[in-house]
Amino acid sequence: MTRIQLVVFDWAGTTVDYGCFAPVSAFIQAFASREVRVSVAQAREPMGLHKRDHIRALFSMPEIAQQWRQVAGRDWTEDDVEALYAEVTPLQVVEAQKFTDLIPGVVECVAALRDQGIKIGTTTGYPRQVAQPVIAAAAEQGYRPDHSVCADEVPAGRPAPWLIHRNMEQLGVFPPASVVKVGDTIPDVEAGLNAGTWSVGVTKTSSEVGCTESEFEALSDEEQTTRLLTAGEKLLKAGAHAIAQTVADVPKAISDFNQRLERGERP
What we know:
Blueprint: E1 6-9, H1 22-32, H2 40-44, H3 51-59, H4 62-72, H5 78-96, H6 106-115, E2 119-123, H7 128-140, E3 147-149, H8 162-171, E4 179-183, H9 186-195, E5 198-202, H10 213-218, H11 221-237, E6 242-244, H12 250-262
Parallel strand pairs: 1-2, 1-4, 2-3, 4-5, 5-6
Helix pairs in contact: 1-5, 3-5, 5-7
């Protein structure tokens, strides 16, 4: 009988960086250096993708493409993507190190999963150069995954399944039905589906909600509910098998998946 053996967590917006702010700032700064204005909402829209793909997605937005034509006198090219990626990466190294605090409940969640014999993997849209200081800072706070895979270590980032499959390979876990992907973006959910695993969408700490913990708590009860429902609906529409406000709710989802597996259900 198959049971859950591995949970693969995202980083920013899921286990660190409450509200997912580090990537947003880096993209805005990089485009601003070319006199192109990118709003916070625009910068968040492609969140979860490999950072090169994120830049392509921003360039593909009509408002940003038009600004680029006005400034550069031509349409954007792949050379521009590479140039901005080279600029974004060091900015992200700096920004990511400002947002390394663990989201409340991460350590307790991981301990509860390990008590069940479940292994812990991670994936990220960051390249290793950006992710490594974040991983090190998390370790100092008590969060030490069994394996971590970065976007520049696989043929393609999310929503491709390779980040998840690499964790499965390195940790010796199969079949995919025994694996759960946990993340706060649509590409996270889609990567889980493409990998054949269960997918859990995180809402409260997500890029979709886009608030720090204190900002969220300052919202009215009605606004909190609206934002959580909106984020949850987007993730469910993308195919998430379950929604968790934070990673603290993940053990409950694991229990549900085990029950579904016992009934013969699969992702």
